[in-house]
UniProtKB/TrEMBL annotation:
<dbReference type="GO" id="GO:0005886">
    <property type="term" value="C:plasma membrane"/>
</dbReference>
<feature type="transmembrane region" description="Helical">
    <location>
        <begin position="382"/>
        <end position="400"/>
    </location>
</feature>
<feature type="transmembrane region" description="Helical">
    <location>
        <begin position="218"/>
        <end position="244"/>
    </location>
</feature>
<feature type="transmembrane region" description="Helical">
    <location>
        <begin position="182"/>
        <end position="212"/>
    </location>
</feature>
<keyword id="KW-1003">Cell membrane</keyword>
<feature type="transmembrane region" description="Helical">
    <location>
        <begin position="420"/>
        <end position="440"/>
    </location>
</feature>
<keyword id="KW-0472">Membrane</keyword>
<dbReference type="Pfam" id="PF09594">
    <property type="entry name" value="GT87"/>
</dbReference>
<feature type="transmembrane region" description="Helical">
    <location>
        <begin position="47"/>
        <end position="67"/>
    </location>
</feature>
<feature type="transmembrane region" description="Helical">
    <location>
        <begin position="119"/>
        <end position="137"/>
    </location>
</feature>
<keyword id="KW-0808">Transferase</keyword>
<comment type="similarity">
    <text>Belongs to the glycosyltransferase 87 family.</text>
</comment>
<dbReference type="InterPro" id="IPR018584">
    <property type="entry name" value="GT87"/>
</dbReference>
<feature type="transmembrane region" description="Helical">
    <location>
        <begin position="317"/>
        <end position="336"/>
    </location>
</feature>
<keyword id="KW-1133">Transmembrane helix</keyword>
<feature type="transmembrane region" description="Helical">
    <location>
        <begin position="342"/>
        <end position="361"/>
    </location>
</feature>
<keyword id="KW-0812">Transmembrane</keyword>
Length: 502
């Protein structure tokens, strides 16, 4: 049996990053479980590794989110519209079981639906996910019981996605596994995880980010293509990655990733495009034709100024703002004093897409949670943003309760909902501003302050610049550019020696 000194040496890595030594909020939060770990605790020698802890916490929090939906599971989804809003437990999943033909055995994209929708309005891979869940749902019995079971089956599948997201986030930055707790403990993540099927795309993109951090460009591209086949937004990360690879001169790696993304997307979509073109195009036509909807900046403007914004106007304005933001992100990438980290730009491009969209469904916050944990792993800023998102989550349901409760007027009136939209927009803008500040002032970036360059950047990590604008220049890889020693916010005079301690 190895001695205690040998065991301690085997897990001691001076370069490891411990949140409770660099983040005062993490240090204060650790007091709930006894405070920061001391020198006699050897987590590295036990089964309880950081990644396993993060995964279990994510599963546990997901289960709590399922419990939060219990009032709707019992009756809210089936008896009366307003109760599912007053209890803030609404979910699309049980409603679409019948509404999109799964209860009747209709095949997505191939079979027409009754009513105005005609075909399923989701991307192909999400439709496959929904169809598989319907296969696992008993086909006999009362419709209410089958809808409940359909939600439970989907929740089980989405729980796997949630665990994948947390684990991939924890592993993307090798020296910062505990940052995965930002995902696992995110309140908005817990509350919105089972509203819709977004976690499938989020999980695929989180796995793609992990693959890129390990230098596996082809695997990254394939996963991005699959994520795009489940939801459009993951394709956006290829834009800032192009500019980063331009600055670093990594054209071959980018080409491999891009071709992998296009190829995997085509593999999923081509069969449906060929055999059921009308059903396949529904997602894209629906996205183009839908009007200004809940949570968007366009809805806020239209109600604030009492003007009507048509779908065509919103599409044009959204496109102009998105192009302008892309140009700005490209300029930021090429002129920053140090090449921005990939996770920072991935977060910014997805956040801009959310801010300029015609609709903001509450579950869209899921798109940003793992990217935010990688872009700005700082508990204070993360929780400020999460508080704003939780406020919006409650605001939209209370507003819908107000509009569906008749003369009782239970819930939040229109002016209050306008405030909730503003809080969501300002919270997202705040986190974007902090990330941009970190790019312009890399000494404020907690990842780089700990001595890393771009741990999520794969081949970009520590690579010299090949093209820059202005006086931008890249310092040596993992240089001693750390601006000062890490502050131990709660060691009480002890010096932890295990590399994975909080």
């Amino acid at each position: 049996m190895p001695s205690a000194e040998t065991m301690r040496a085997s897990v001691h890595e001076p370069d490891s990053v411990r949140p409770t030594r660099e983040d005062e909020v993490a240090a204060a939060g650790s007091e709930l479980i006894g405070g920061p770990v001391g020198r006699r605790v050897l987590l590295g020698t036990s089964w309880w590794t950081p990644v396993r802890i993060v995964a279990l916490v994510a599963i546990g929090m997901f289960a709590l989110g399922m419990v939060q939906k219990l009032p709707c599971y019992d009756s809210g989804w089936f008896f009366g519209a307003s109760s599912q809003y007053t209890h803030a437990c609404y979910s699309d999943i049980p409603h679409l079981y019948q509404g999109r033909g799964f209860a009747d055995g209709l095949v997505p994209y191939f079979d027409k639906l009754p009513g105005d929708m005609n075909y399923l309005e989701y991307p192909v891979l999400t439709g496959v996910f929904m169809e598989v869940a319907s296969w696992l749902t008993p086909g006999s019995g009362a419709l209410q019981g089958r809808e409940q079971m359909y939600w439970m089956v989907n929740a089980g599948m989405l729980m796997v996605c949630a665990a994948v997201i947390a684990v991939c986030t924890a592993r993307t930055h090798r020296r910062r596994p505990w940052d995965g707790l930002l995902v696992a403990l995110a309140p908005a993540f817990v509350l919105t995880a089972t509203i819709n099927w977004d976690l499938l795309a989020v999980a695929l993109l989180a796995a793609a980010m992990l693959m890129w951090s390990r230098g596996r460009a082809l695997a990254f591209g394939i996963l991005v293509g699959l994520a795009t086949a489940a939801k459009f937004y993951p394709f956006l990360v290829l834009g800032p990655l192009l500019v980063l690879c331009w600055r670093a001169g990594k054209w071959r790696e980018y080409g491999t990733a891009f071709l992998g993304a296009v190829g995997s997307w085509l593999v999923v979509n081509l069969p449906v495009m060929w055999l059921a073109p009308e059903g396949w195009v529904k997602f894209y036509s629906f996205s183009r034709e839908r009007g200004v909807d809940f949570g968007s900046v366009f809805l806020f403007i239209s109600r604030w100024f009492d003007i009507e914004i048509t779908p065509d106007t919103a599409n044009t304005c959204a496109m102009i703002m998105m192009v302008a933001a892309c140009v700005g992100i490209a300029a930021l990438t090429l002129t920053a004093p140090r090449r921005p980290r990939f996770a920072q730009l991935a977060f910014l491009i997805v956040a801009v897409f959310i801010l300029t969209n015609k609709v903001y469904s509450p579950q869209y916050v899921l798109w940003l949670v793992p990217l935010a944990a990688l872009a700005r792993p700082r508990w204070r800023d993360f929780l400020i943003w999460q508080a704003c998102e939780v406020a919006y989550f409650l605001g939209i349901w209370m507003y819908l309760a107000y509009t569906t409760s008749g003369d009782a007027h239970k819930g939040l009136p229109t002016d209050g909902y306008q405030v909730a939209i503003a809080v969501h927009l300002l919270g997202t803008l705040y986190l974007c501003a902090v990330v941009v500040r970190d790019i312009f002032m890399p000494e404020r970036d907690v990842v780089r302050r700990a001595g890393d360059d771009d741990p999520s950047g794969g081949v970009l990590d520590g690579a010299p610049d090949a093209f820059v604008l202005g006086a931008a220049a890249h310092p040596p890889r993992h240089a001693a550019h750390v601006d000062g020693p890490q502050v131990d916010w709660g060691s009480r005079g002890t010096e932890p020696t295990e590399n994975d301690s909080l």
